[in-house]
Design a protein that fits this description.
Layout lengths: L2 E5 L3 H12 L5 E5 L10 H4 L1 H4 L4 H4 L4 H6 L2 E4 L6 E3 L4 E3 L5 E3 L2 E4 L3 E3 L12 E2 L4 H10 L5 E5 L3 H12 L3 E5 L7 H18 L3 E3 L4 E7 L2 E7 L4 E3 L2 E4 L3 E3 L2 H5 L4 E2 L2 E4 L10 E3 L4 E5 L4 E3 L4 H15 L11 E6 L2 E7 L6 E7 L4 E7 L5 E7 L5 H10 L5 H5 L12
Parallel strand pairs: 1-2, 1-7, 2-3, 7-20, 9-16, 10-11, 10-16, 11-12, 19-21
Antiparallel strand pairs: 4-5, 5-6, 8-17, 13-14, 14-15, 18-19, 21-22, 23-24, 24-27, 25-26, 26-27
């Protein structure tokens, strides 16, 4: 009986196992995860879990009974040591091997650690796993002082959750505005204002020189130039590093920090596929390779990979998508832009009800975002996929339907 091995115990791994059974694969499915928990979704770690509104069971993909009933052999807390692509085997921690017919890599990412003095002290936190979130949650309480290194999505979401719980929060960001790489300075400033209005000590254009330590425990951060920020807990939110070492050692083609895969998510080895954070995939709609660390890829890519494992010819054409919730701001974003693209706003940023559009030099829409507006994302996706030149003035005019914003 054929065996399909899934390496990665997150959302992507669970969705791959689910897709295999939904497509009537009757062989053996073996899923290995490095954490001791069953696969779960990660976005709630910095949102609902820290806010206290959800527990692990609420965002666990399937319970143990589901895996048993669907004959999924799950191995939590098990790191695959090696892939022998020629022999079609994986090596387990005890040295034994398991043969596979097809292999799916869904190894995800890990938190980026900074080479700072004091970075290994007690009281320094990272946020990637459930266990990380538990430790961080225990460190956040009313009137506790939390210093966050990094003003990206995780840093800002934790800042919002901590402020909502009554903690005193400071954020140190090296760029002139938070989120500048993804959203640009103008939209980044909107998020900066939001956090400052909610009492966050947000410092931009600063560099962290060290984690301040007393008696082995972090007590704040020191900035280059001499300023210090006192804290009872420090979160380092400096981005993520894709876990591609296993794929690289197996001889798979690697590029730009990810496993190079086709639009069908097949790697340079025809029997090995990659999804999620590590997949640097050809994208038929965007006309370029894309690797994004977004929940939507972990949710949706596995079905495409599974279809092709079973002999299909599917392509992953979904546009990149992510969302955030911070205080009274809810946002959804689709597409792929950079801070260098020109931004056009529609609506009222001051009231936190607006749309943002990112245009290239030829006025093609590369990405769009809806903030506290919940019925425009499909129209944004259609404009991106159509690839037509748009009229920036029409985009900015709330009285013009998105279906009527193409250039004359």
């Amino acid at each position: 009986m054929p065996t399909i091995v899934i390496v990665g115990g997150g959302l992507a791994g669970a969705k791959a196992a689910e897709a295999l059974r939904e497509k009537d694969f009757d062989g053996d499915i073996v899923l290995f995860g490095s954490e001791e928990h069953l696969p779960y979704e990660r976005p709630p770690l910095s949102k609902e879990f820290l806010a206290g509104s959800q527990k692990l069971d609420d965002f666990t993909v399937h319970d143990g009974n589901w895996y048993r009933d669907n004959r999924i052999d799950v191995h939590p807390g098990t790191m695959i040591e090696e892939i022998d692509a020629a022999a079609h085997t994986v090596t387990l921690p005890d040295g034994s091997t398991l043969a596979y017919e097809k292999l799916l890599l869904a190894t995800g990412s890990r938190s980026r650690h900074l080479d700072l003095p004091g970075a290994d002290a007690d009281g320094v936190h990272y946020l990637r796993s459930y266990d990380d979130a538990v430790a961080l949650s225990e460190a956040i309480d009313e009137n506790m002082r939390v210093a966050i290194v990094g003003g990206g999505w995780i840093g800002l979401e934790v800042a919002a959750s901590a402020r909502n719980r009554g903690a005193q929060v400071a954020v140190a960001e090296t760029a002139p505005q938070p989120l500048i790489g993804a959203l640009g300075a103008e939209v980044g400033a909107i998020f900066a204002d939001l956090h400052r209005k909610h009492g966050v000590d947000l410092r931009t254009d600063v560099a962290v020189a060290e984690i301040l330590v007393e008696d082995g425990r972090a007590v704040g951060i020191g900035l280059k130039g001499g300023d210090t920020i006192d804290a009872d807990a420090v979160l380092v939110a400096a981005g993520a590093v894709p876990n591609i070492e296993l794929a690289e050692s197996a001889g798979l083609d690697i590029g730009d920090g990810g496993v190079l895969v086709s639009a069908g998510l097949r790697s340079s080895d025809p029997d090995i596929f990659a999804v999620g954070d590590i997949a640097n995939a050809e994208h038929p709609v965007l006309g370029r390779r894309v690797r994004t660390e977004h929940w939507a890829n972990a949710l949706n890519q596995p079905a495409v990979a599974v279809a092709n494992m079973l002999g299909g010819s599917a392509e992953y054409t979904n546009l990149p998508y992510f969302f955030t919730d911070q205080y009274n701001l809810g946002m959804e974003y689709s597409g792929l832009a950079s801070g260098e693209h020109r931004v056009v706003l529609r609506g009222s940023p001051d009231s936190l009800e607006f749309l943002a559009f990112w245009l290239d030099d030829e006025d093609h829409l590369r990405a769009g975002m809806q903030v506290n507006i919940w019925d425009q994302l499909d129209g944004i996706k259609e404009l991106i996929s159509a690839g037509a030149a748009l009229d920036p003035a029409k985009l900015a005019d709330a009285d013009v339907a998105l279906s009527d914003v193409t250039a004359d």
